Amino acid sequence: MPDPTVVGSGVGIGDDVAAALDAACGAFWRFSCSVYGRPGIAEILLALQDEADADVNLVLLCLWLGLYGKPLDAAGLAAAVRAAEPVQAGVLRPLRAARRGLKALGGPASLYRDARELELAVEQIAQRVLLGVLPPGTVPAATAEAAAACAPADTAYAAVNLAVYAAHLQVDESRMEPLLDAGRKTFRLSDD
User: Fold this and answer.
1) DSSP class of residue 135?
2) pLDDT at residue 137, rounded to an integer
3) For residue 40, what are the contacts with CB-CB under 8 A and spacing of at least 6?
4) Does position 7 have pLDDT exceeding 80, yes or no?
5) Mutual orientation of helices 74-87 and 56-67 as an angle, nearest 10°?
6) Distance CA 117, CA 76 (A)
7) What gap in Å lies between CA 60 and CA 35, rounded to an integer?
């Protein structure tokens, strides 16, 4: 039986809501890839993942929502963490371990690439799950107009969102600071 709390499950979601979610998912994915690709950011995110068991998608969600002026409080974060955990524990962590194992063993490059592509596809699904559990009005419109309505240097909500997640992870929030500038720069480019 489909789960009505999971967006895309076919229960309780109209075409307009599905289209808006699709647009938001696409915008969030493009933003995530752009931020991740900025110099030094992948290393910061992977260190948080490996050392603090951070969910990189949650870090990026905190940043993305904040740059759209959307706060994510402890309760909203807790809901996102609960929604993400089955995907992380059941699929992403094992895939990541397998991909890293292939690399360590010197497995065929094509098999490693396939594992990486599968992991990225599941990361996109994980992002959709995260967006699907957010309260109504939290997911940004993901349009150029919405981006233009936000001040380019306004990272206040993003800083608060990242601080909430840092507290959840029990890490110093200063580890998240480099993400703010990268996110701000990406944000201004991703919706133009």
Assistant:
1) P
2) 76
3) 178
4) no
5) 140
6) 30
7) 8
